[in-house]
Design goal:
The chain has 264 residues and is mainly alpha-helical. It contains nine helices and five strands, in the order αααααβαβααββαβ. It has two domains: 106 residues, no CATH class; 95 residues, Orthogonal Bundle (Arc Repressor Mutant, subunit A). The strands form two sheets. Strands 2-4-3 form a three-stranded antiparallel sheet. A two-stranded antiparallel ribbon has the order 1-5. α2 runs antiparallel to α3 and α6 crosses α8. The relative contact order is 0.07.
């Protein structure tokens, strides 16, 4: 057996000493050689006693238990299923080892939550200042009304109307249609350019197309007006501008890039 270099004060209890001996002998904690551990444990206590060290009662109690287990190991076990004493020791040491591993985590929690006290709940005495005779029929009638109201609310179902997106009408497409119309017919009134719009979105997109073509001078309004027709009315006549700038298409593309490309 190797010379021991431990001191009794190095251990908080006999289980710590046993774990140190198991580690020193490189044993599996689930397969302990009780005879060897018992001999080393007793030798350690004898050395401590020879040095006039006070030995705690826990260490002496564990020494006696180890000797009991050692003697039981020498007795053959006739009953099947009976666990050898080393399993009892292994179970104790495993639980102690888990406790040691959890101690560093529990210590800061103890320091944080210690010296805290829970305030008792205040008992509120029932308010008996209002005491009046209650008619049982009135109470039952009120309960019936509450139940009827609850049932009616459960039957009412909220009708959910899903949001439908409006059709998107590109302004660019309307510009192409306007130019095709004026190219084919030569001239057209504002009403004629807008009357085929099937929806408000189409109408707005067509009108935006007319404004954009006028802005870049791709189309112009007729100078001569019929009597009784206003230049601002639906009979305003448009036709292609023969003197349209060559960069009119570029201006259209530029303007459309900064404007909404569709109407909803």
């Amino acid at each position: 057996m190797e010379n021991m270099t431990y001191k009794l004060t190095d251990f908080e209890g006999p289980l710590d000493l046993l774990l140190a001996l198991i580690e020193k002998n490189k044993m599996n904690i689930l397969d302990i050689q009780i005879a060897l551990i018992c001999d080393q444990y007793l030798a350690f206590l004898a050395e401590a006693k020879a040095m006039d060290m006070e030995i705690a009662t826990d260490f002496l109690n564990m020494a006696s238990q180890l000797m009991v287990w050692k003697s039981e190991m020498l007795i053959p076990h006739e009953e099947e299923g009976e666990k050898p004493p080393r399993f009892d020791l292994s179970d104790i040491l495993v639980r102690h080892q888990h406790a040691r591993e959890a101690a560093p985590k529990l210590h800061p929690l103890y320091a944080f939550y210690s010296n805290r006290f829970v305030k008792d709940t205040d008992e509120i005495s029932p308010d008996r200042s209002f005491v009046a005779d209650q008619n049982v029929e009135d109470i039952l009638s009120a309960v019936r009304r509450i139940n009827a109201y609850r049932d009616s609310m459960e039957r009412v179902k909220t009708v959910f109307k899903p949001m439908t997106s409006k059709p998107i009408v590109p302004v660019e497409g309307k510009i192409v249609i306007i130019l095709d119309t004026l190219t084919t017919k030569g001239t057209a009134t504002l009403r004629e350019l807008l009357e085929d719009a099937p929806s408000l979105a189409d109408l707005i997109a067509s009108f935006m197309g007319v404004l954009e073509l006028m802005k870049v001078r791709k189309i112009i309004m007729e100078d001569v007006l019929d009597e009784g027709n206003s230049v601002h009315g639906e009979h305003t006549r448009f036709f292609l501008n023969p003197d349209a700038p060559t960069d009119a298409q570029m201006d259209i593309d530029k303007d459309l890039s900064s404007l909404p490309l569709s109407a909803q």
